[in-house]
Design goal:
Layout (H helix, E strand, L loop, with lengths): L8 H16 L6 H18 L5 E5 L3 E5 L13 E3 L2 H9 L4 H7 L3 E3 L16
Parallel strand pairs: 1-3
Antiparallel strand pairs: 1-2, 3-4
Helix pairs in contact: 1-2, 2-3
Pfam family, one: SCP_3
Organism: Glutamicibacter uratoxydans
Protein name: Bacterial SCP orthologue domain-containing protein
Length: 126
């Protein structure tokens, strides 16, 4: 079953490109651009790795569930990945690998299915 997208794909890709340009220039994009880029990348993950066994959190911008497996229904899910927005976008665009992200100390992954490395990068922007 396909996920229900909330972000227009053209707008999401534009926000991601704008973020990538700012990242290359070591500057910060506007907060609405960052928020849209994060949410678009989360939707991409959910559509490419459909499922409900892992919850990916990028506070304060968004959360999604992905990866096939047992679904949790209440309480804290057994498989959680949480990280800041910049790190998530670096992973999603191939600017950082999963192993590099783990070494930063900003990526928190718990549970047997919490390794997203097989699904990253989602979209590559040099």
């Amino acid at each position: 079953m396909a996920i229900k997208r909330r972000i227009d794909e053209a707008e999401g890709r534009a926000a991601l490109r704008e973020w990538a340009g700012a990242y290359r220039e070591s500057s910060k994009p506007a907060r609405p651009v960052l928020a849209m880029a994060v949410r678009f990348a989360l939707e991409e993950l959910a559509s490419k790795a459909e499922g409900n066994s892992v919850e990916v959190r990028v506070p304060p911008f968004g959360v999604t569930q992905c990866i096939p497996g047992p679904r949790h229904t209440r309480g804290t899910p057994p498989n959680v990945v949480e990280m800041p927005a910049e790190l998530w976008l670096c992973l999603a665009t191939g600017n950082t690998t999963w192993d590099e992200a783990l070494q930063t100390g900003q990526l928190h992954a718990s549970g047997l299915r919490a390794d997203l490395s097989a699904h990253l990068p989602l979209i590559e922007y040099p």
